[in-house]
Amino acid sequence: MCELHRFQFEYGPKILTWAATPQELRFWAAETHFPLTDASVFERWGDDPDIEQFVLSSDGNIVGYGETWCEQDDPWAELGRLIVDPQRRGRGLGKQLVRLLLQRVSQQQFQEVWVRVFPDNLPAIHCYRAAGFCPGSHEEQNSLNAEQPADYLWMKCDL
Predict the structure, then answer these.
(1) Which pLDDT does position 41 carry in this prediction?
(2) What is the 3-state secondary structure (H, E, C) of 37-93?
(3) Dihedral angle computed from the Cα positions of residues 91, 100, 64 and 15, in that order, rounded to the nearest 10 degrees
(4) Burial status of residue 34 (CB atoms within 10 A of its CB: 0-12, 13-18, 19 or more)
(5) Per-residue model confidence (pLDDT) at position 22
(6) Cα 1 from chain centroid (whole Å)
(7) What pLDDT is recorded for position 72?
(8) Which has the closest alpha carbon to 44: 29, 28, 56, 62?
(9) Distance of alpha carbon 69 from alpha carbon 92, whole angstroms
(10) Strands ordered across the beta sheet of 112-117
(11) Domains in the chain, start-ordered, CATH in brackets?
């Protein structure tokens, strides 16, 4: 049984180890300085009042991390920085994490939720599809990528 809990800073050092390669770090946090070892990054990420940080637990162990980005002035929310313990990948935990985060967001007024993903992050794309996301239109993606540092694949899920 998996449960979603609020992130606590003591989890940070363990979670940082889950991005075990430069590519995983890029996929997870869009960071390029590998390895990421400074757990204060979680404080920086959590300083934004629109971001809520969560962990997924299973059998008392922390097995996933993800964030909800909910700006009250926006008509949509976003999920970000999702990662699962590499020792537990391929077991559907990512999909459970996404679904539980969607439940959190659905308690607010948002009509849809978006995720941005690097187009070469095929496991994440598969996970998001399995959780009910589909790619946005070409126009939506161009608009959302206009101010981004990379061309992401943007996927959305209606609530």
Answers:
(1) 96
(2) CCCCHHHHHHCCCCEEEEEEEECCEEEEEEEEECCCCCCEEEEEEEEECHHHCCCCH
(3) 170
(4) middle
(5) 97
(6) 20
(7) 86
(8) 29
(9) 23
(10) 2-6, 51-58, 61-69, 76-84, 112-117, 153-158, 134-135
(11) 2-158 (3.40.630.30)
Q: Which amino acid is at 107?
A: Q
Strand 76-84 relative to strand 112-117, pairing: parallel
d(CA 52, CA 18): 20
CA distance 100 to 112: 15
How far, in Å, CA of 136 to CA of 157, rounded? Answer: 9
Per-residue pLDDT of 47-74, as tens digits, reads 999 999 999 999 999 999 999 999 988 8
Q: How far is CA 102 from CA 73, 117, 143, 159, in A?
A: 18, 17, 23, 8
**4-56 pLDDT, tens digit each:** 999 999 999 999 999 999 999 999 999 989 999 999 999 999 999 999 999 99
Mean of the per-residue pLDDT values for the chain? Answer: 96
CA distance 101 to 40: 23
The answer to whether residues 93 and 2 touch, using CB atoms and an 8 Å cutoff, is yes
